[in-house]
Amino acid sequence: MNRQRWFKGWYAALLSAVLFSLLLAGCGGGGGQTGAPGPTGAQGTVPTNTVLNPNEDLPGALPTVTGVSGGTGPDVRSSKGIRPSQKKAFQAGDTLSVTFVLRKNNGTPLPLSELNSGGILVSGPSFRYQRVLAYQTDLLTRAAANGDGSYTYTFATPIPSTYLAPLNDSESFGVNDGELQGKPLIAGTYTVAILTAKNYTVKDKSYVDVGNGTLDFVVGGVAPLEPREVVKNDNCNRCHATLQAHGGTWRDVRTCLLCHTAGAEDKNDPAVEGGTPGVSIDFLVMIHKIHNGSHLPSVLGVASNPDGSRNYSATPAPYKIVGDNSAVFDMSKIGFPIMPSAYAAYLYDTAGTTYQGVAGNGPMPRDTGFSSLTAAQKLQEDKIRTGAVACARCHGDPDGSGPLTAPSQEYLADSQPTRRACGSCHDDINWSYPYTSNGQTMQAQANDLECVRCHTSSGTSLSVQDVHTHPWSNSTFNTGVNVNVTAVGGGSGAGGRHQAGDPITTTFSVTNDAGANLNINGLTRFQMIVVGPTSNTQLILPNINVFDFSFRKSKSFTGNGAISTPTVGSEAVQQTLALVCTATNTFDVIGSVSGTLKTGLAVPDGGGNTGSVTYAGVTFKITDGSTNFAEGDRWYFEVVPTAGTYTTYVPDDIVWERIGAATGGANVLSVANVPLYWGRQDVYERTTVSAGTALGASHLALGRYVVANAAALPAVAVGDKVVIANGTAAEEYLEVGRIQTTDDITGADLGTSDRFWFTTALRYDHAAGESIAEVTLTAKREGIAYTVSDASAGQITLVAGKFTAGNPVVVSYRTYGRFGKRRAPGDTRQDVFPAAAADTDDIAQSWGDWKGLSFVDGTYTVGMWANRDFTVTPLGALTTVESWNNFASNNTTYRMISPPATKQFLYGSATALTPRTIISSGDYCDTCHGTLQAHGFGRRGLDTCLLCHSIPGTEDGPKYSFSSWYIGPTQGQSVDYRSLLHKAHMGKNLANAGTYVVNGVFLGTPYPVSYEAVGFPAMPGKAKHCDTCHGTSTAWKEPADRSHPTQQGAPLRQWNAVCGSCHDSNAAQAHIALNTSAGTETCFVCHGQGREYDVEVMHKNR
C-alpha cells in the first residue's frame, strides 16, 4: 500500500467521522451555550504500514527486557558495576514474570498486537548453559499490557527443580560432555530471551523484521550476576554484518547460547544422511567446527591410532549438520577468512598429480616427522595446519583501536580448555587413546580436570595463547619490513609533472617495525610497478625485481659450482660487482666504481672453496663444482649499502631487441633505450634461420599471438625463438610460449590457422603473408665476444671475429623505465599504453583496455613491495632461513610482507592528484581478512592489490606462459578487481560457479583456483552487502565511464564488466546482451541512480 495514500485515507475517514458527529449534534435541541472544553484525549496509535517502498528499511521490532519479578529467594546484590534487574533471587517453584518494551529502530513504540509472532525461553547458568524453561510461543497472547507502555509475560510453568534435556538429546553425550539433564539447578546467573517478529511486504516479496532481547537474572542463593560474554555480537558482525540463523529469527549470539547448550545435537533423522549420531550443536563445539570446516582432520581423513600416532588413511567424514526441516548443511568446505591462515595455495607438479608443497604464510609450523611423510600425507597435514588460529577475532577486541570493546570474559577462551572446546577443531584426537605430537605424548583423558595442568593461558609451548599464535603474527619472529615512498621525480613538465619520454625516479626508505634501516640486498624480494591514471588504471611499467639479493650468472656459463649469498657490510660501495673468470677456476673481482679489486682469485678444484672473502664491503664464498669454471663465466651483483633513504630510477627490462647486424669486425651498436645497466645485458647472435612460412592473418602490435600453419614449422617447440618479418623494418624476435592447434572451447582442429603464442607482446603490426621462421640465438660472452663500451649511451662494441658478418645482433637489457619506449634503434618513441600482464585480445577497449592508445593526463602511481623470510622449527624457535619450498625439512619458512607503499604523481597537464575511491579504505578488507595478503605470501594490503588488479586488461595465468602445465586455458578471464573480487565473493552463489576457474601464479608456479565453495559471510543477502567491501564510498552505485578521452574505438561496456561478474546466469547474460545489441549499453535506463531498478535499491538488504 502506498503510505501517503494510506495516510490521506485514514485522515479523510477521521475528518468525515468528526463532521458527521457534528451534524448529528446539530439536528436536535434549540441551541444553547457552548460547553466547557473537555479533557485532551489520549494520543492514538497509527498502525505501522506493512507495505514498504523498495528503498525503505525495515522499521524494526526491538524488544528490550527491562525487568523480572516473582523471585522469593535472598536479596540480590550488585557486582562489578552490574545492577541486578530483580530484588529477590529466584528459586525452584517460583513463577517468573518478564517485563519488556517494544520499539522501532527510531525509538517509537511498537504495539505488541502488531507482531506476527513471538517467543520466550530461559536457560542457565551462564557458565554452563542448560535448558530451564523451554521456548514458549504464546508471547503475543499471554503478555499483558502495562500502563506505561510496557508488557509483562508470566510463564505458565514455574521454574523447575532440575534441568531439561538438551535439544534432540540421545545417548551420544552425557555428564562428561557438560550435560546436566535431570540435575538440580545450580545457583548462578540465568538468562531470559525474547524473540519478536513482524511481517512486511516489498513489491509482493515478504520480509520478516526480527528482534531479540535478553536479560540476566539470579537463581538460587546470593550469587552475583555474571553475564556470559566470551564472544560478542560485535565480533560476529565484523564478518556477518547481522548475525542470524534459523531463517533469520535469532540474531544475537547471547540467544544462540540458550539453545545450543552442552549435549544438544542436530536432528539426527535416520531418513536423512543415514542418520547423524553424535553431531553436537553445543555452541562452543559447533561454532569452532563450522569456522574450521575444511581443515578438520576428520574431514581430511586423519585420525589417531591406539598408540597415539596419526592415521592418514582414515575414511574422510564430511562435517554435516541436519537442521530445521531436516535440511542438511555441509560445513566441510568452510574456511575462516582471517589471514595469514586463510591464504594458501596447494601446488602440484606440471601434470597436476603430485603434491609439491603449500605456498603462503597460511600453515602453522610443521610437526617433527613431517619430512618423512608421503606427498599425499604432507598435503593432509598442510591443510590441517592452515586452519583457524586467530582466536582473538571472535574472543578479542573486534576493531583494535576502534570504538568497540572486547568481550568482558575474553580471558575464558584461553583459561578454560576442555575436551569439547579443543576437540572441536583437533578432532583427530580420540580421548580414549594417547596422543603424540612433536615428541610429546598426552595420555588418554577421561575428563577435563587435567587440561589446565599443561595448557595454561600463556607462557609455555603448550599454553593456549602460545600454540594459537601464528608465527607470522609473532613480533619476535616477524620483525617487519616497511617501505615508505617519500618522493617521485623525473618529470620535465611544469611543477615536475611527467611528460612523454620522462623517466621515473623514486625516493623511499626500508625499515623494520622497530624503525631500523634494512639492507636492501638482504631482503628476499623488492618490486616496483607504475600504473595509471586513477580514472582507468593501465600498466605503464610492469612489476620488476629492482635489486639483487644474490649473484646473477651471465647467460653463457660453463661451471656448475656455487656462490654464497653475499653479505653487504657498512663500508660497502654502491656499484655493480662483476666476478670475471679469466682462466679455469680463476676470477678477477671488478667494481663499476672501485675498478679492479682482485686479480687471480683461485677456487680450489675438487669441490674446494675460496673461503669467505670480502671486497669493497661485500663478503661471499665461491665453491667449485663437478664442472670447472671457464674463461668468460661471470657473476654480477648490484651492491646497495644500507641507508636511511634510497633514490633510484624505476627500471624496465627490454627483451629480444634487434640492435643491428654484425660486420665481422669491431663495430659498435647501440640499444634503443638508454642507459644500459651494465651487468643486466644479454647479447645474442642470430646464427641460424629456417625457411619458415607465411602468417595466415594480420596482427596488431601488442598482440600475443600470430596465426600460421604449425605443420609448416614442424621443428618449432615451446621455448624456441622465432623471427617475424625477417629482413624488413618490422623484423622482431619472440619466444614461443604455446602452440595452439585446437579450439580451447570446442576442441575443433584449427587447420592451417594455428596460433603461435609468445611470452612477450608483438612490437609491430604485421600483415598476412609476412614471414615467420625459427631462429637460433646464440648467447655471447662479455669480455670475449663484446664489451659494454658506453653504458650511458647504450653502446656495445663487438669484438672482431667473434660475430659473423651480416648476422643480426639481439639484446635483452635493463634501462630506465619511461613514459614510452622505442622498439629498435632509430625508432620513433611509442607514447602509448603497453599491454597488461597476461594479456590477450579477448579483453579489449569495450572493457576499458587502453593498450596501444595514447597516454592520458591524470594521476599515476608508483607502487612497491618488499619481503623478508624467516624459518621456525616444529617447537617454534627461529633457525637458519631455509627456502620456502624445502619439502624435505621439518622446519617452516614464512615471509614478512611490507604494507602498501605507493606514491601518486601527475602526468601531462593534470594539476591535482585524484585518488582512486571505488573502495574507501583497505581497512574494510581487513575487517574480515585480518591482514589481506595474496600471491602465496608476496603481496599485502588493498592498495598493493589494486596496483595490478585495477587494470581492465589484466588476465589470469595464461596458457602461453604455462603450456606444459596441467592448468586449463582461460583466455579472457579478467582478474581486474571489478570482475575477480565480485566473482570470488559471490562464490558458490554464482549461477555458474562450477565453471569459474582462475589460474593463479605463485613465484612462477601456476595453480587453478575455484570459488564454488566460497560463501560471503554477510547476513542477510550475502554479497549484496556492497558497503561491506566498498565502505563509505558511493562509487559502487553506478559503474564509472572508462572510455579513452580521445581514441575510444569500441563503445564501452562498463555495466557488463561489473554487473555481469555476479549476474552470470544464462538468463542474466542474455539480458545484458539484449540491452547491448545496438553496440551501446542501455543499462542506465533502468539501473541508473534514481531509476526504478537502480543498483542501490536492488542490492538493499532486509
Fold blueprint:
Blueprint: H1 3-25, E1 62-69, E2 97-103, E3 117-124, E4 130-136, H2 139-142, E5 144-145, E6 151-154, E7 188-202, E8 205-219, H3 233-240, H4 253-259, H5 283-291, H6 297-300, E9 303-304, E10 310-311, E11 320-322, E12 328-330, E13 345-348, E14 355-359, H7 375-385, H8 392-395, H9 412-415, H10 419-425, E15 435-437, E16 440-442, H11 451-454, H12 464-467, E17 482-489, E18 505-511, E19 525-532, E20 538-545, E21 552-553, E22 562-563, E23 567-568, E24 575-583, E25 586-591, E26 595-602, E27 613-615, E28 618-620, E29 622-623, E30 634-639, E31 646-649, E32 651-661, E33 668-670, E34 682-689, E35 693-694, E36 705-708, E37 721-724, E38 732-740, E39 754-758, E40 771-779, E41 786-790, E42 795-798, E43 808-816, E44 858-872, E45 878-879, E46 892-897, E47 901-907, H13 923-929, E48 933-934, E49 939-940, H14 942-949, H15 977-986, E50 997-1002, E51 1005-1010, H16 1026-1030, H17 1054-1062, H18 1066-1074, H19 1084-1087, H20 1095-1098
Antiparallel strand pairs: 1-2, 2-6, 3-4, 3-7, 5-6, 7-8, 9-10, 11-12, 13-14, 15-16, 17-18, 18-31, 19-20, 19-44, 21-30, 22-29, 23-28, 24-25, 24-30, 25-26, 27-28, 32-43, 33-42, 34-40, 34-43, 35-40, 36-39, 37-38, 37-40, 38-39, 41-42, 44-45, 44-46, 44-47, 48-49, 50-51
Helix pairs in contact: 5-10, 15-17
